Amino acid sequence: IIFSFILNILVIYGGCRADEIKHFTNDFLYLHCDELPSPDNGAVKVTGEMFGDTATYTCREGYWLSGNRERVCQGGATWSGKQPECRLKIGSMCMPPPQVPYARHSAPLDKDDFPTDSMVQYTCFPGYNPKGFRTAKCLQYNGTVQWFGPDLRCLPRSCGPPGDIEHGVREGDTFTFTSRVTYNCSEGFEIIGRPYRYCQSNGQWSGQLPECRPVQCDKPANPQNGRAHYTSVSYNSVVNYECRFGFKLVGPATRTCNASKQWDGIEPFCEEIKCEDPGPFYNGYFEGRSYSLGSTVFFRCFEGMKMEGARSATCLQSGNWSNPIPKCLSPCIVPEIEQGNFTDYSPGARVPHGVEINITCEPRYDVIYNATPISCNNGTWTHVPTCVPARCRQLPEKPKYGIVIAPKTDHGMKALFLCRDGYQLSGPNVTECHYGEWTLPSPVCNEIYCPFPGFLPNGRVLLVGYMGMYDYRPYVRKVTNNRQIMYECHRHYTLMDGPPGATCVDGQWSPKQMPRCVRGSHPVLTTQRRRRELLRDRLRRGGKRRRRGKTTRSKDRIPKEACALRETDWMEVEIVRMGRGNESLPHGTVINVTCTAGYQLNIGNRTAKCVRGRWKPKEPECQTCTALPSANNP
């Protein structure tokens, strides 16, 4: 309150400027007032002891405050007013009138008590407008003497909007007394006038509204032997630089006026155009030593060299030569090649750059990878060819019934001969490529045969053919690969301890073991059944059954059901004719059935035929005899 009052007095009556007020108030910000003692029968409460802090006094019950209720730490480091007293309430007297912020009353400041019906008037400080009832009166009410009123508020006076500026912004949205607003210009503009204004007690803003003007850079100077072109020197203006003929600009070609009133970048200058030394010229020399604008130098190669590129260059206005330095390329020396020679050139001869030559190898030698022709490249051959022993152009001849394996056909590589199953190699199995030819002829693959396996006691060995089986005799010599034999025992003998047959594999019977024919009463496994079992076993191993004659197409076949037969140990079954099909007993199969002693066949004829899954006349069975045969007397 005191600070605002002082500020108002300084502005209204002292004629101080706002910046002077700021300097004045800053001098008092760090002043320190003494500590205040509490009055008798009362207390004091302070907000601090610095400039502008306040002290508020109160009295105990039954006492009233005589003097100022509030004191302020002033600029002289002293508290305003005098120390108040707490006096005993006697009679009908009012204490000093209440304080109203930003206002003063009409009573003397040194008067401590007021009789009943005393009245005082309140007036707001300059810069504040009153609102409410401005009178206070001392009255007795319910046995208590007190002030009634005022109902007053002193509101700071409004100065209205202070105004906006073009190309700038305003800071501050409060427009009442003691308020301050600040103006700032946009980038590239500078403020003209004071950048701040205060709302004064008379409702007017201090000073004048400032304005923002574009910044101005100094006029750019012309570079020596050049000129600066511009139309304006205000913010964002551009200056362009150029040089006279024969000079080049060093530095930026354009500069812009920035917000700090400076031209950005460095100031360029004009330098006489001179081309640099063309550089090293290998295997040659220059004619002409002037490197100024328009000068020309000529290029010359040493004797025996070949020039590649322009023969002269001129210094241009850009400071560069019109052509790059050419190349003087060296010739190549023809090398010596073992087992070969070059066409039209002898070893040691000089061949100009870029010339190609061919190589020819001696008989039984080849150029490696066909690397011909070769080319001279600035004294170095693109590659040096080599004559190596010739490779074989083709694989060795494949033997009949065999194959040849040769991963590579280069000199020294080998080829391997192999025969198909059932054939034996006659001759060397390996040959080698030697200077383009195979050292050995191809061998022969001869068919090999299995020997006679021997006789089967109490049985016979049958050789399986395309039309059936027949007895295998020692005079049958040429039994080829994959042919089969079957073992069959005589009547009342059974195969034991061995396989039912064997297959010819690479001249040997597999398996090698032969079975035995042991006498017994078990039914004989006929040749046809054993043949089928062996055939099925062969098919499982991946073999194929070959058929002779024409093949009936599958679309003309009508599938027919096979028959089943319940065989017993006292039954002997012989397959007379096998039907067509993959089943054990397909449709059309004819069998002969014989029962052992003590059993009799249930069909009159020993022959039964499978017809569409049924035996005709019926399924054969060996049944026990109803009467035992009589024995002869000894």
TrEMBL record:
Main location: membrane
Paired cysteines (S-S): C59-C86, C185-C212, C243-C270, C301-C328, C595-C622
Protein name in the entry: Sushi domain-containing protein
Subcellular location: Membrane
Classification via SMART domains: CCP (SM00032)
Domain Sushi: 31-88, 92-156, 157-214, 215-272, 273-330, 390-447, 448-519, 561-624
Pfam families in alphabetical order: Sushi
Keywords per UniProt: Disulfide bond, Glycoprotein, Membrane, Repeat, Signal, Sushi
Transmembrane segments: none
Superkingdom in the source lineage: Eukaryota
Signal peptide: 1-18
UniProt xrefs under InterPro entries: Compl-Cell_Adhes-Reg, Sushi/SCR/CCP_sf, Sushi_SCR_CCP_dom
Region (Disordered): 539-558
PROSITE patterns (alphabetical): SUSHI
Organism (species): Larinioides sclopetarius
